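It is worth pausing here to work through a concrete case rather than discussing structure prediction in the abstract. The textbook approach is simple: state the sequence, then state the predicted structure, then interpret. We follow exactly that order.
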Amino acid sequence: MIRGHMLSVKESKGRNGEIVSFAFYYRRSARRLKIVVEKLWPSRTMWPTLYTGRHQFAANLKKAGYSRLEIAALMGHATDETAHSHYGKKKAGRKTGGLVQALESEVQRIRVVMGEWPTHKFRTRNSRTNSLK
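Step two, the predicted structure:
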């Protein structure tokens, strides 16, 4: 897998060493990952993809009680709807410790489309430990 990925990187670079096309690099990486995981787990009906980590990250944040605005900020989304509609479900999350916290400046730039979950209070940097109890 690693050798194949490094070959994809090499094939994606131009003369100056910069990635020529991210789309080309992404497609190559996704294809190589698919080949490897299908060989590792041939009887599965679903396999890990390049987005599996993002889905799990979103599910973990939902399970831990993060607000839609915080999740959107941490995932780099423009609105509070994207992670809710397209990324990991709360039931698949793990309520683990040591999760990151969104910068308030990033949270403030999120456009509210759906609004907050009714029972959740927005956490500030100082109230984080109190709101997770």
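Step three, interpretation. The chain has two domains: 2-40, 52-131. The CA atoms of residues 38 and 46 lie 9 Å apart.
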